[in-house]
Design a protein that fits this description.
The protein is α+β, with helices and mostly antiparallel strands. The chain has a single domain, classed as CNF1/YfiH-like putative cysteine hydrolases. Helices cover 22% and strands 26% of the residues. The protein is built from 5 helices and 15 strands. Strands 4-6-9-8-10-14 form a 6-stranded mixed β-sheet. A 4-stranded antiparallel β-sheet has the order 1-2-15-7, with no helix packed on it. A hairpin with a 2-residue loop joins strand 12 and strand 13. The longest helix is centred in the first third of the chain and has 15 residues. It is globular and about 55 Å long.
Length: 245
């Protein structure tokens, strides 16, 4: 099973990974057989060694909504939001993507984590700032102690957008995230996200952007654009280990 991990996130304190097609589809909402998806999720949990029955996932709605979860959240009831945060160990958080950016955060001082679903809509509504604000409120997180990892997602040349989105992105001040070429418009969501992280106080050397494009590499990754909407989802997972384990 092929996995992608970041050297910035510590193995001792955390379990984390980004999956690809070798872990199969892990989403229930894309038409796959439910029993197959459950089996894919169980195999992933045993491979990464986290408790399958504690996994918290989201019903992702392309919003800026952030929810703090505790160990009492049941894995069979996904939370309607686009970012999950927790400071509880043994509570794996999962984001599902197929071109959108999965973002994992780790506060190395207060031991809190986040899993964020950031597509165009979430990025332009600044779900990054919302998540960092909520981590500060709930866990007293300081952005200077946050490590951020942006997992495999769509690159700029694969992500053509319409003129309205191009102009909205410019109006929001993310000039370096857009490109206009022969009256076609392209957006790089990761450039928006990195700018937001830095504006919130996350330092450059604490940000890891994985270079894999899900659409360029659609034989490896699920890609909504490259597979014209008919595709599964890969996972970004993060969990604080218990100090006892
Ligand atoms: Zn690409």
């Amino acid at each position: 099973m092929k996995m992608f991990t970041s050297k910035l996130l510590p193995d001792v304190a955390l379990i984390h990974a980004f999956t690809c097609k070798t872990s199969h589809n892990i989403a229930f909402h894309v038409g796959d057989n439910t029993h197959d998806v459950i089996q894919h999720r169980k195999t992933l949990a045993s491979t990464l060694n986290y408790p399958h029955d504690r996994l918290v996932s989201m019903k992702q709605i392309h919003s800026d909504k952030v929810v703090a979860v505790t160990a009492t959240h049941h894995h069979k009831a996904p939370v309607t939001c686009d970012a999950l945060i927790t400071n509880e160990p043994n509570t794996p958080l999962m984001v599902m993507t197929a071109d959108c950016t999965p973002v994992l955060l780790y506060d190395r001082h207060t031991s809190a984590v986040a899993a964020i679903h950031a597509g165009r809509a979430g990025a332009l509504s600044n779900i990054i700032a919302n998540t960092l604000t909520k981590m500060a409120e709930q866990f007293h997180s300081d952005s200077r102690n946050i490590i951020a990892v942006l997992g495999p997602s769509i690159c700029q040349k694969c992500y053509e957008v319409n003129q309205d989105i191009y102009e909205e992105t410019l109006a929001l001040g993310y000039d370096s995230a857009v490109m206009c070429k022969a009256q076609r418009y392209f957006l790089h969501v990761n450039t928006v996200l990195v700018q937001q992280l830095q504006e919130c106080g996350v330092t450059k050397n604490h940000i890891d952007v994985m270079k894999h494009c899900t659409a360029c590499e659609h034989h490896t990754f699920f890609s909504y654009r490259a597979q014209k909407g008919n595709t599964g989802r890969q996972a970004g997972i993060i969990m604080l280990r218990s100090s006892l384990s």
